[in-house]
Design goal:
The complex is a heterodimer. By secondary structure, chain A is an alpha/beta fold. Chain A has helices at 50-58, 97-101, 103-108, 112-125, 141-154, 171-188, 199-205, 239-260; strands at 4-15, 24-35, 39-43, 65-70, 73-74, 82-85, 159-163, 191-196, 208-213, 218-224. A 6-stranded mixed beta sheet of chain A has the order 6-7-8-3-9-10, with helices on both faces. In chain A, strands 2-1-4-5 form a 4-stranded antiparallel beta sheet, covered by helices on one side. The longest helix of chain A has 22 residues, at 239-260. Classes of the chains: A alpha/beta, B mainly alpha. The complex binds adenosine-5'-diphosphate and magnesium ion (MG).
């Protein structure tokens, strides 16, 4: 394994209570080291602080305590070195698909000819050839999220952050998207931090699954996934996969019950 | 009976829209030509058309129309040039908003027509005074509405831009402005409609030309046909400018309809 790229150093987050209510401890002091080229999935029931953690890494939120280091430098705010894909559709509706993918490159001041080359290559990688001049509204949810992934990757970030990017998609589309993302990762070995509440998705994609627990949010388990690459969707029915799934289901079940106040 | 919110076909829509105009015209003709209303107070439609034709061919009413359109457009463009950038700044920067919003909210309720006497003192009864009435009537409305639109920009789009490496300035120029351009255009279309009412008020008091001036002149002559013709011309011009504005917006922002 290569060196650490991202270091999360006792990061915590407390949201002030609304209208005199008690403050929300969304994230207990959390430590996590992400190695270069790792594909880490963060798994947990909703409300356990997954988005909060990812947004702090992205620089969109500030931790109440602790710090995040990217390549040894403390993160102070959002930047092009960390690409983010959101659960909501965040393509710029006034830009075409090609212009959306080129957005970050344009912000960097890259000349047009060079931009076009990169855009063409990522349009192809996410299977959107022929849709370059469409507007986001004209595309399905799955295609929009593929564009969002291409837009983040075109910027060549150090690490790719994804917050339940396939959460709003139907099951079949979600499966296809998982394979597409994994295919890109297998070829390019980008470091990835992927948040999900879907156990199968977490195992299928990950080289390491981080299980989070709710109230207060913290890391509960850190489980390596040693399934071989390249992975094919049929892997989801192998005994190795099933036993991992059973193990994680049990972990999550306890958490979900606690989060819902069931004992 | 139709169901609530049930859509109607395009053909039915046009037929229904036109039939109300016909109904309206018929009621008017019935009341006046039937002798139920004194001719001194309300001209009948035929007299109105004759008076209008006379105005256009004999009394140079086209010149009045031209000057009124020029005033509206001039005052409105000046207001938009000042108000749109200010509104964008207010929407984008909360300290700027805190600084200006209370005053602008107050100024918005100052009736433009009440400024007419004061503006006559300051600027005489020349073109400057007319432009100022429209300017005052429009500028605060545009500032506030643009500020609200920009302030309501989808946060996730702004966040996406930051994670793609946008600077603060980049976010304003390449997210806040394009994201709200169609809404700003809509606001301008709306306020232009209001500007039409201000110009007529300005022309009713202390003016020697324009549609409003013609209407007040006709009052002295009890020429209700001419007055009604003038009012209808204003309505028609408003309708045309609205239509042109809508068409322009549609062609400028194809992504909205995509
Ligand atoms: N901006 C905020 N203000 C107050 N509370 C928040 C805010 N964002 C998240 N929270 C709370 O923090 C907890 C964790 O939220 P989040 O990180 O979104 O969870 P997840 O992504 O795992 O579903 C939740 O209880 C949520 O209500
Ligand atoms: Mg979340």
């Amino acid at each position: 394994m290569t060196g650490t790229i991202l270091q999360i150093d006792s990061v915590s987050r407390v949201f002030p209570g609304v209208r005199g209510g008690a403050p929300v401890r969304a994230l207990e002091p959390t430590n996590l080291q992400v190695a270069q080229n790792d594909f880490i999935t963060i798994l947990g029931p909703s409300g356990c602080g997954k988005s909060t953690l990812l947004r702090i890494v992205a620089g969109l939120d500030r931790p109440s305590g602790g710090r995040v280091l990217l390549n040894g430098r403390e993160i102070k705010g959002p930047g092009a070195d960390r690409g983010m894909v959101f659960q909501s559709y965040t393509l710029f509706p006034w830009l075409t698909i090609a212009e959306n993918i080129a957005y970050g490159l344009r912000e960097k001041g890259m000349p047009k000819a060079q931009r076009q080359e990169i855009v063409a290559s990522y349009t192809e990688k996410v299977g959107l050839l022929g849709f370059e001049n469409h507007y986001p509204k004209q595309l399905s949810g799955g295609m929009q999220q593929r564009t969002a992934i291409a837009r983040a990757l075109a910027n060549d970030p150090e690490i790719l952050l994804l917050d339940e990017p396939f959460g709003a998609l139907d099951n079949q589309t979600r499966g296809l998207m998982q394979e597409l993302l994994l295919g890109i990762w297998e070829r390019e070995r980008k470091t990835v931090l992927f948040v999900t509440h879907d156990i199968e998705e977490a195992i299928f994609l990950a080289s390491r699954v981080i299980v989070m627990s709710a109230r207060p949010g913290r890391i509960k388990a850190d489980i390596p996934v040693d399934l071989p690459h390249p992975r094919h969707y049929t892997m989801k029915t192998t005994p190795e996969f099933s036993s991992l799934k059973a193990q994680l289901t049990e972990e999550i079940r306890v958490e979900a019950m606690q989060a819902e106040g069931v004992h | 009976m139709p169901r609530p919110l049930d859509p109607v076909s395009q053909g039915t829509r046009v037929t229904l829209g036109v039939s109300f105009f016909i109904l309206f015209l018929a009621a008017w003709a019935f009341a006046t030509l039937g002798g139920f209303v004194s001719r001194t107070f309300l001209a009948d439609p035929i007299t109105m058309v004759q008076d209008g034709w006379l105005l256009l061919t004999r009394f140079g009413f086209l010149g009045d129309i031209g000057i009124t359109v020029w005033r509206v457009v001039g005052g409105f463009v000046l207001a938009a040039l000042v108000a749109v950038p200010l509104g964008i700044m207010m929407g984008a920067y909360k300290s700027f908003e805190a600084f200006l919003e209370p005053f602008v909210s107050f100024a918005r309720y100052l009736p433009a027509s009440a400024f007419v006497p004061l503006l006559i003192l300051w600027a005489g009864i020349g073109e400057m005074q007319k432009l100022l009435v429209i300017f005052i009537g429009s500028v605060f409305q545009i500032i506030l509405m643009v500020a609200v639109a920009v302030g309501n920009t989808r946060r996730d789009l702004v966040e996406a831009a930051y994670t793609l490496g946008s600077s603060d300035q980049g976010v304003v120029k390449r997210v806040l402005i394009p994201a709200n351009a169609p809404e700003i255009a809509e606001i301008l279309r709306l306020v232009l409609g209001w500007a039409w009412t201000y110009v007529i008020v300005a022309e009713l008091i202390g003016s020697s030309s324009g549609i409003g001036h013609m209407i007040i002149d006709s009052q002295a002559l009890l020429a209700t046909g001419q007055m009604i013709f003038g009012i209808i011309v204003i309505g028609v011009i408003g309708l045309i400018s609205d239509f042109l504005f809508k068409a322009l917006n549609r062609s400028l922002f194809p992504w909205r309809l995509a």
